[in-house]
Each structure stands twice: as C-alpha cells, then as structure tokens.
Amino acid sequence: MSFFDKIFGGKEENPERKSFWKKIESSEDLSQAIEASYHHRIAIFKHSTRCFISTTVLKNFEKEIDGLNDKPDLYYLDLLEHRLISNKIADDLGIRHESPQLIIIEDGKVVDSSSHEDISVRQIV
C-alpha cells in the first residue's frame, strides 16, 4: 500500500477480519442473515475497503466487540466487492445506503441504523 493510500484510504491489502464476522458475499448469504434475525437480533456492517474513515470506524467497532463476553451475530459486507448486495440491502430493507454503516435487524426489519462516528456496539447488545 502506498503512502497516499494509507493517508487517504486506499484499498486494504489482505484485510484480516476478526473471526466473529460472518461474511455476506451473495444474495443467499443475505437471505440467511435476514432469516437469522427472526431468531435473534443481528447486525450488518457495510464497509468500504478504500475509505480510511470506514476502516477506522470498523477497527474501533471491532475493539468494542472484542471487549464483550457474549458476541452478537455480526455480518460483514465489503460493499465495493459486493455492490449489488449492498444495493439489495437498501432496496429490500428500505434503508438509505451509507458507508460505513451498521444496520440492526430484528424479525426481518431494520430496528436501528447508524453511520460513521455513531456506530457503536451499544446498538446491538
């Protein structure tokens, strides 16, 4: 990664996600996540891998999650790699697209959504 990419948010090289994330990489993955919301509250973190702010927010959120004894059901979406799924989330759930974005879903419906500095683990626990 170049110096400017580090400052201005170039694409992450070999991003390692924490083990608690369940990746959403297909419409089927999204359907399974929504189905899980009928059993317990879930969260989807939409992340832009080219955005320094999104990366910072994601790292801070992961630190918060690491501090929990019981980890909630968390889903991760690389919205640059899976733009169509990101659009599907906005359309199907009637929510405005933002990045970074944490969407809390319960019983198949959005119960909370936040972006940027408003993203916090308190929304899901």
TrEMBL record:
Q: What Pfam families is this protein classified in? A: BrxC
Q: Which InterPro entries match?
A: BrxC
What superkingdom heads the lineage? Answer: Bacteria
Name of the featured protein: Bacillithiol system redox-active protein YtxJ
Q: Which organism is it from?
A: Chryseobacterium pyrolae
